[in-house]
From TrEMBL:
PANTHER family: MUREIN HYDROLASE ACTIVATOR ENVC (PTHR21666:SF270), PEPTIDASE-RELATED (PTHR21666). It comes from Micromonospora chaiyaphumensis. One of its GO terms (molecular function) is metalloendopeptidase activity. This is Peptidase family M23. The chain crosses the membrane at residues 29-50. Residues 93-191 form the M23ase beta-sheet core domain. Keywords: Membrane, Transmembrane, Transmembrane helix. Residues 1-21 are annotated as: Disordered. Pfam families: Peptidase_M23 (PF01551).
Amino acid sequence: MTWAVSDMLGSMTTAQPPGRRDRRRALRIGLAVGAAAALVAVAVVVVPLLPPPGPRPLFQLPVSCGETWRLGTYPGHDAYDVDLFPAEGEAWGRPVLASQAGTVTVAGINGSLGGRTPDNPKGPRGRGGGYWVKIDHGGRWETQYLHLLEPPLVRAGQRVARGEQLGRVGSTGNSGAPHLHYEQHRGWEKVETWFDGSASGITQDDSEYSVTLTSNNCPAGGS
């Protein structure tokens, strides 16, 4: 009988009353539901503050008027990334121009520069995009220009016109040869580049291919 009473007392002193367990469980459920409701409320407030992207600006090739350039990609380059090489002549030092009017949001170094220059074209590679520029064109459209030879000729916050020079073609950052790496973004998404109202045709990076285009980034065209 002693053992039975002892066992009974042990069970009663170690277990929690059912009412307390239910209250704690209800409290946990209530907190979880409250947190979920708060997240939904934040989403409802934030999402309407992000308007859809506006119409595509009339982007032009980011190189001098009348010049013909080869636009290419290769496996591992990422979809919609474009590398530009002049069809004729040396790439080093060619002017890099704004594709469309906008406001510079970044002008500096992406990653590290490395040591590839016109005097030492086989120098050590850097990381990332090297000297680069990013421009906000409004309507949630953006362009990026990477691997510039020298510090950009523009600064963050500066308003630029279409055709204004941003820098010169180089091979800073993770670059194997002098070229301009170029991207167009709509909202938070990278998209196929369009030039002078037409799609470039550079889309997926499942194979190596290129197209050849002539720049209409000319002063008489306006911005």
